[in-house]
């Protein structure tokens, strides 16, 4: 289930972070060097929120100068990890404000704890990624990516602040997942073609 991000939420997120592979050349380009705008144009249409993806990757210091899928993945994973931590912290703050509303308190606790799991899963993904274990990194990210949607559903009609937390995390987790999936696909294509491509940071 994809959440719809209203324009104002897109602005908030941006401000927070201020064809098949058919040839050797194509595989090499994906692994090694692309101008940032071309790299973003390649990745963002595959995400849930393409326009937001482009703005985030362009404005974030962690991704704006990425020249390869690998360096883009490193930055995207860092952004996703930061957002997971921020989401858990924000939900903990909101939980403290809900002490007298027991019907919501449980939802806040569950969402906060699930975001803590997302933190650990993204950390694990970073470790797997550093070892070029892209499939395992992708599986960790898939677990983390379920958290925003499950939190949103748990509330049914969540408060605006909770929705913003979930929408932001949904967008940023998805970007990291898409980039890692792309690297996994490039690795698979490379192996099928019997190519040796040096992956550069």
Give helix and strand order, one letter per element, not per position: HHHHHHHH
The total of beta strands comes to 0
- Helical amount: over 70%
On the 0 to 100 scale, the average pLDDT is: 82
CATH topology: Butyryl-CoA Dehydrogenase, subunit A, domain 3
Number of helical segments with 4 or more residues: 8
Low-pLDDT stretches: 6-34, 197-201
- CATH-derived architecture: Up-down Bundle
Beta content comes to under 5%
**Cα distance spanning the termini:** 33 Å
Principal-axes geometry comes out as elongated
Secondary-structure class: mainly alpha
CATH class: Mainly Alpha
Radius of gyration: 18 Å
Summarize the structure.
The chain has 201 residues and is mostly helical.
Write structural notes for this entry.
It is built from eight helices and no strands. It has 201 residues and is an all-alpha fold. Helix 5 runs antiparallel to helix 8. It has one domain: Invertase/pectin methylesterase inhibitor family protein (Butyryl-CoA Dehydrogenase, subunit A, domain 3, Up-down Bundle).
């Amino acid at each position: 289930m994809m959440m719809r991000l209203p324009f104002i939420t897109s602005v908030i997120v941006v401000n927070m972070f201020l064809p098949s592979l058919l040839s050797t050349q194509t595989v090499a380009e994906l692994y090694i060097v692309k101008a940032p705008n071309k790299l973003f144009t390649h990745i963002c249409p595959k995400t849930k929120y393409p326009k937001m993806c482009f703005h985030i990757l362009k404005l974030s210091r962690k991704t704006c100068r990425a020249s390869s899928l690998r360096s883009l993945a490193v930055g995207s994973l860092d952004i996703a990890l930061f957002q997971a931590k921020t989401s858990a912290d924000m939900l903990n703050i909101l939980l403290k404000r809900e002490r007298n509303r027991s019907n919501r308190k449980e939802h806040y606790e569950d969402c906060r704890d699930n975001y803590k799991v997302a933190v650990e899963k993204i950390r694990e993904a970073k470790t797997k990624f550093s070892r070029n274990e892209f499939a395992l990194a992708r599986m960790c990210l898939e677990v983390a990516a379920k958290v925003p949607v499950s939190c949103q559903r748990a509330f049914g009609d969540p408060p605006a602040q909770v929705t913003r937390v979930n929408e932001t995390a949904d967008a940023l987790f998805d970007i990291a997942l898409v980039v890692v999936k792309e690297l996994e696909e490039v690795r698979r294509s490379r192996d099928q073609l019997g190519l040796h491509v040096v992956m550069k940071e």
